[in-house]
């Protein structure tokens, strides 16, 4: 069946949420090539403290993703996004006004405390149909990749003009633009008139972790972000050893990102058509393993680097799109923020540990040892995906309730969520309807009819 296009709301949501991610990540990525060098001029700076300044952002992100994801389930996505961006701006200003290493560390930690990734992904899921979520996540993931590529060029240039502190002011300005976009462009999520269950954290946690699927997906995203950071601690030096100077790396990365998207999109569309979501994610891990294993060969020709890096980023970008969309499809809106909080915590923890552990072990194990470790992790994650089992075939169902009594919609919502195969239930007392997302392979027609009349 031909894939339907994005609706106007979905397009607006995808573009605006992707731009929020891109504006925020552009500023962060610009720091990567310069913070270690320029940070040495700060009072009290040492190499371990500069490493802490670089990594503490990911640590505070990892700690706060789950609590803020849970909070977005209770008070809504947008308030969490607004607050997170304000905190991020404050952290950027703290770092910008600081001339000591401890001020830089405090600013970076405060930046990370603006942990909005789970809320943004949950809002993207709320604003899209299940069959379109991979496209939405791909646009967000693509915006991060594009921001990374652009940052490799802009970071060194702007830091020469503005210094490290000036770069933080630019980052604050970019985050302020993202805040304006969030407030004025991003559509609203679920309407407040729709009834939501007032679930406790323990109830949400039990539901999200019941079958262990969230831990499999969390492991997968942990591994790909560990590997991403590890690759960028290895590849730049190997490119220089191959005769390509740092100034040439930017166009190599840009070319690779474009080629990887060209390779990734047909794979993702094929998975959607054939309903082979788990298999395509396992294939992506196999592609990453192939790319990492190729680095053992020692080839230096530019064609080799373009092929290897294209394979790596094709696998990475496909997983970056499919993993969060899989989380979103497995868990309804009542649980989605919590689930994506677990997921995002693992993602940022992977980036933090991938950098710090690789930095610590690289002198001891060498490049080959680090590559072998990353290959083992990728194989483990790919194999673990088999435990996901058959993923749901999602369908939307609207049930018109037979009863017009007060709270009938909420009671029907509670009953629906207890039914096998119901992933999401949103009630609307004003319409006397319950909006469901169900797994077609598990839902029983008689269960739906017990609620009322099925529309359509």
Automatic annotation (TrEMBL):
- Any Pfam family matching the protein: MFS_1
Determine the domain of life of the protein's source: Bacteria
* Membrane association type: Multi-pass membrane protein
User: Which residue numbers delimit the Major facilitator superfamily (MFS) profile domain?
Assistant: 13-393
List the source organism.
Kangiella marina
Q: Which key words tag this protein in UniProt?
A: Cell membrane, Membrane, Transmembrane, Transmembrane helix, Transport
Q: Where in the cell is it found?
A: Cell membrane
So where does this one cross the membrane?
A: 21-39, 45-68, 80-98, 104-125, 137-158, 164-186, 214-235, 250-268, 280-296, 340-363, 369-388
Give the InterPro entries listed for this entry. MFS (IPR011701), MFS_dom (IPR020846), MFS_trans_sf (IPR036259), MFS_Transporters (IPR050171), Sugar_transporter_CS (IPR005829)
Name this protein carries in UniProt: MFS transporter
Q: Which Gene3D superfamilies match?
A: MFS general substrate transporter like domains
**What's the chief localization of this chain?**
membrane
């Amino acid at each position: 069946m031909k894939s339907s296009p994005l609706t106007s709301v979905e397009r607006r949501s995808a573009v605006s949420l992707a731009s929020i991610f891109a504006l925020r990540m552009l500023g962060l990525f610009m720091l990567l090539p310069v913070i270690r060098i320029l940070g040495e001029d700060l009072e009290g700076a040492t190499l371990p403290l500069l490493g802490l300044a670089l990594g503490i952002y990911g640590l505070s992100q990892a700690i706060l993703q789950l609590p803020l994801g849970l909070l977005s389930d209770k008070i809504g996505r947008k308030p969490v996004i607004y607050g997170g961006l304000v905190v991020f701006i404050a952290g950027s200003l703290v770092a910008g006004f600081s001339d000591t290493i401890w001020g830089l560390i405090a600013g970076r930690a405060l930046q990370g405390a603006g942990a909005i990734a789970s809320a943004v992904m949950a809002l993207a899921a709320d604003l899209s149909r299940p069959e379109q979520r991979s496209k939405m996540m791909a646009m967000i993931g693509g915006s991060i990749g594009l921001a990374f590529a652009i940052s490799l060029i802009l970071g060194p240039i702007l830091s020469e003009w503005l210094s490290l502190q000036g770069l933080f002011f630019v980052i604050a300005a970019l985050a302020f633009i993202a805040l304006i976009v969030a407030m004025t462009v991003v559509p609203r999520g679920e309407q407040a008139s729709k009834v939501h269950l007032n679930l406790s954290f323990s109830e949400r946690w039990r539901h999200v972790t019941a079958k262990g699927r969230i831990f499999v997906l969390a492991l997968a995203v942990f591994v790909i972000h560990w590997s991403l950071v590890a690759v960028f601690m290895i590849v730049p030096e190997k490119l220089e050893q191959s005769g390509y100077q740092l100034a040439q790396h930017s166009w190599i990365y840009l070319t690779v990102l474009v080629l990887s998207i060209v390779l990734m999109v047909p794979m993702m569309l094929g998975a959607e058509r054939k309903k082979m979501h788990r298999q395509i994610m396992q294939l992506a891990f196999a592609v990453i393993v192939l790319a990492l294993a190729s680095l053992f060969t020692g080839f230096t020709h530019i064609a080799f680097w373009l092929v290897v890096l294209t394979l790596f980023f094709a696998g990475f970008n496909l997983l970056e799109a499919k993993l969060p969309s899989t989380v979103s499809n497995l868990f309804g809106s009542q649980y989605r923020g919590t689930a994506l909080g677990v997921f995002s915590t693992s993602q940022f923890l992977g980036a933090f540990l991938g950098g710090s552990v690789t930095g610590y072990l690289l002198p001891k194990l060498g490049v080959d040892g680090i590559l072998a470790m990353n290959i083992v992790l990728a194989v483990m994650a790919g194999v673990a995906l088999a435990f996901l089992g058959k993923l749901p075939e999602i369908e939307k169902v609207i049930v018109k309730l037979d009863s017009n009594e007060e709270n009938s919609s909420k009671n029907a919502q509670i009953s629906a969520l207890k039914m096998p195969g119901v992933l999401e239930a949103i009630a609307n007392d004003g319409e006397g309807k319950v909006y469901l997302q169900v797994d077609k392979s598990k839902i029983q027609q008689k269960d739906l009819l017990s609620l009322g009349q099925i529309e359509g």
